[in-house]
Amino acid sequence: MSLGPRLEFRQTQSLVMTPQLMQAIKLLQLSNLDLVAYVEAELERNPLLERQAEPEGERAAAGEGEADAGAVRERTSDADLDPRAEAAGERDGRDERDGRDERVSDWLEERLDTSRSAIEDRLDTGMENVFPDDAGREPVAPSPSSEGPSYSEWTGTGGGGQDSEGYNLEAFVSAETSLADHLESQLVLAVSDPVERLIGLNLIDLIDEAGYLAADLAGVAERLGAPAATVEKVLAVVQTFDPPGIGARSLAECLAIQLRERNRYDPCMAALLAHLELLARREFATLKRVCGVDDEDLAEMVGEIRRLNPKPGLAFGSGIIQPVVPDVFVRGATDNWLVELNSETLPRVLVNQAYYARVQKITRNEREKAFLSDCMQTATWLTRSLDQRARTILKVATEIVRQQDAFLSLGVQHLRPLNLRMVADAIGMHESTVSRVTSNKYMATPRGIFEMKYFFSSSISSSDGGEAHSAESVRFRIKQMIEAERPDDVLSDDTLVQRLRELGIDIARRTVAKYREAMRIPSSVQRRREKQAAVSAG
């Protein structure tokens, strides 16, 4: 075998992820809020990008207001430039000053002498007799008008005026109170001992957002080096704070604190709280025997517990809920649906070609030219990616509406089974592209706002060989059947399977149980006990 250099030709294929392609993929899966944040960052980083001006139609109303304001300014400026108007103003000013001088002359017949000797004679002191703090103070300039300082001069000085540093009107707006701040303000008033107050602050820090104390008191006492009895004492004080039920270590303790606040904690209620697992399983017969009460008293006790708040801490420090803004609007009627993008969620950016041409002429070295070229390439690709993203979303949404027209016309029970491959094959795209488009995107329809992924569901075969059924429509039918059942005729999972098969839906019992548990619907045994208890209470 000889070793030596030689030439070879090879033909290969490879997929190269360019930065531009990665950016386009990233933009495609962003929600409208994330997209706005991304574009804002690009506007700050890239000097060649700028926001697109509003269309002429949107500025028509604003233009009319500006025209009216311009006419007012024009009339005002004409009056200012008119010599006759100016002369008339001077005459009015002289008349006003003459009348004011006549009024002043009633009590002041002669002008005061402002010479140094006259001032020293009137004050009976020398001008050099001043305090050191007043030596560097400059005299206040008199107002040019004899009527005294204007409104703007009064508001421009002093505390809270325009000239005062650090003045901010927003500082007077009350901020949102957190749970920890609310509890600490009560701790200052309830506990005076510094050691107990320190323990209370530590316990407040350990309370979670739901209002529960998840830490072990023995561990807290060991970490702080305090007696366990003292920690228990401070915790008992914290549990008396508002909101009721705060600082509890379990659900039963939280409910017990609130019942003590309402003066409803008696031995029967204590026995009920000690067996909350029986209440969760709706074993009311066992609860009546344990608590020693009849049906009416048990129904009243259960109703009292249901009126309590199991998570009292959630009333404080809750974040602002961001409303869902749809990316696509669907309007129209049966067989005539109009699909359009929400223009409010689409950032409007342009490439400033004029600025690029002007700056390109004054570049001095290769580094500046490379930076300017990179900015131009990034800006151009961003505008193209945004346009392609909008077109892709509209194409996918149109195909979803075409596939699910029965849902829009008739309701959830007519939702058809749909997957990513069906949409991708119909519009000539890859499944991953359709998946990115439908992520974090919402569609506003006449039946409400739905996430685009809502329209994709698995199929359940038909028992009579007909068209398959959507899993979402099957869940809707199960929920309808359970809501319509009577207290003396509660449907079991086997009965639900039988009724669904009568409707042409071939489904297994374990699938029905899985759908029921996903909708948080109790079993037939628990529903029967709950309905019987409701009938007894009624």
UniProtKB/TrEMBL annotation:
GO terms for molecular function: DNA binding; DNA-binding transcription activator activity; nucleotidyltransferase activity; sigma factor activity. Residues 49-61, 71-108 have a biased composition (Basic and acidic residues). Residues 143-155 have a biased composition (Low complexity). One of its GO terms (cellular component) is DNA-directed RNA polymerase complex. Keywords: DNA-binding, DNA-directed RNA polymerase, Nucleotidyltransferase, Sigma factor, Transcription, Transcription regulation, Transferase. PROSITE patterns: SIGMA54_1, SIGMA54_2, SIGMA54_3. Residues 49-108, 127-166 are annotated as: Disordered. Residues 169-355 form the RNA polymerase sigma factor 54 core-binding domain. Pfam families: Sigma54_AID, Sigma54_CBD, Sigma54_DBD. GO terms for biological process: DNA-templated transcription initiation. Residues 370-529 form the RNA polymerase sigma factor 54 DNA-binding domain. Sigma factors are initiation factors that promote the attachment of RNA polymerase to specific initiation sites and are then released. Belongs to the sigma-54 factor family. NCBIfam families: PRK05932.1-3, PRK12469.1, rpoN_sigma. This is RNA polymerase sigma-54 factor.
